[in-house]
Amino acid sequence: MATTTKSGRKPSAAFMKPMTPDAALAEVIGAKAMPRTEVTKKIWAYIKKNNLQDKKNKRMINADDNLKKVFGGKAQVNMFEMTKLVNKRLS
Q: Which CATH architecture has domain 17-88?
């Protein structure tokens, strides 16, 4: 039996294009241009490192001072809203 790759799909070019974070987002993930996929990984690493995931509702993210700037001043956002807010801060 021949071995095949796990998935024949290639990531979208739009996701792989390096994006530059604005100043507020750069405080969390760094100022270097990176693909959106990497931005998401870095944000989640920051959330886990600082224990910002809500204890009762894991879909909610509690913002610290740095994330509040990224989230437009909101103290708590859900995962899907977080992605939308972060994407606004990439150019």
A: Orthogonal Bundle (1.10)
pTM of model > 0.85: no
pLDDT at 7: 56
Tell me how far apart the alpha carbons of residues 75 and 84 are, in angstroms, rounded to a whole number: 16
What gap in Å lies between CA 75 and CA 88, rounded to an integer? 18
CA angle 89, 31, 14 (to 5 degrees): 55
Pairwise CA distance, residues 42 & 3, whole Å:
32
Domain definitions of the chain by residue range? 17-88
8 A C-beta contact, residue 47 and residue 61: yes
- Give all strands (DSSP E) within the chain, no chain letters: 60-62, 76-78
Handedness of CA 9, 47, 60, 25 (dihedral sign): negative
